[in-house]
Known about the structure:
- By secondary structure, this protein is α/β, with parallel strands linked by helices.
- It has 2 domains: 31-58 and 315-417, Alpha-Beta Complex (Aspartate Aminotransferase, domain 1); 63-313, Aspartate Aminotransferase, domain 2.
- The protein has 12 helices and 15 strands.
- The strands form 3 sheets. The protein has a 7-stranded mixed sheet with strand order 4-10-9-8-7-5-6, with helices on both faces.
- The radius of gyration is 21 Å and the shape is globular.
- The two termini are 27 Å apart.
- The relative contact order is 0.15.
- Bound molecules: 4'-deoxy-4'-aminopyridoxal-5'-phosphate.
- GO terms for molecular function: pyridoxal phosphate binding; transaminase activity.
Amino acid sequence: RPGVTQADPAVARRLRNLGAASVLFYREPIEMVAARGAWMEAKDGRRYLDCYNNVPSVGHSHPQVVAAVCDQIGRLNTNTRYVVEVVDTYIDALKAKLPESLENVVLTCSGSEANDLALRVARAATRARGVIVTETAYHGNTELTTQVSPSAWKRGGKPDWVECIPAPTPKTARNFGESVARAMAALQARGHRVAALLADSIFSSDGVYADPQGFLDAGVEAVRLAGGLFIADEVQPGFARTGSAFWGFARHGVVPDMVTMGKPMGNGFPMAGLAARPEHLAMFCRDVGYFNTFGGNPVAAAAGLAVLRVIADEGLEENAAWAGGRLKSGLGRLAKETGCLGEIRGAGLFLGVDIRKAESGRPDPDRTSGIINGLRDEGVLIGAAGKHGATLKIRPPLCLSAEEVDHFLGAFERVVAG
Ligand code: PMP
């Protein structure tokens, strides 16, 4: 694979096994053997501060989650056709975090499945087909969700029932409603009414656009006036990451018609879900049924319940706000001294930093990749996002401490200065 070293036999074996579908970070991929809290450990004994992973969100190998999973798998795990107390206890706890109107929750194994189902429910409920997404969005790997994931399109790919709108940058966010209206007109011109506006409420693949709070509202209103629904994809911002609300949509003061979630939901145990209004789900289930063998199995529910408890008991939403604030202001200080650092955006422990050419201000994907690989050599893990791949994506576990923030900033300063 271009850009990836095959000198390491473990890497070569992985490339042989997964072939063209292999996805590995870094020019020199890392073989990991263990992880705890915000730290991961490689086979060669090196430790890495994980500032990328949105899966073990309450901390790697969190003892409460590990205990809940081990206890439940030693007691009962089964397909989902039985009543099992922990499953409904979990769904009730999750619903307590959601808008009251979303009374039904369907649990799945991946965010892709949740978004796939949400789109199908939206189409059944509206009897319309059109979908509006942002121009570099990612919503999943099924056929339907790939069709609404511009960031996954390589050649062609855009169906005529999809319309893309620009990422809501701080300059354009106020025109979000007008962008949505234009997209609906374009769909209409091709004979499609709008079924849904599907948006990741922190626009992570687009480059992390969190502010100004409230900008989603006008787009949601426009879609509803035309008979469509708003699906909030909370796979990235959900579960307290933004520090200012449990869900990304809540920062914008909107109540979605459907909410999809995944990634941090089970702290690494594969689980995801869709919350919907009963009448919408009923309309879908009148036409076709829905069953998911593993979705919401008792072990997943036990993991999910432990995650909700840890977020509350350890004050992780507050920590995301506090540690995220410390991180953002540290980055802001460095940006004043370093020409390549552009806009710093985000909320809580979900930050995006634009990397640009100092002379022209243009996006600099090569330098972005250089910084990511340089940080890897310093023992710090982050990623990239955005239309040009020139935005650093920084997303550490919610338990990040002051010392860990400062460790990150020290490494970052050395790398951008180098
Ligand atoms: N939605 C968003 C916003 C995502 O970032 C992702 C995964 N990166 C998905 C959906 C799909 O989730 P999964 O990989 O669990 O299928």
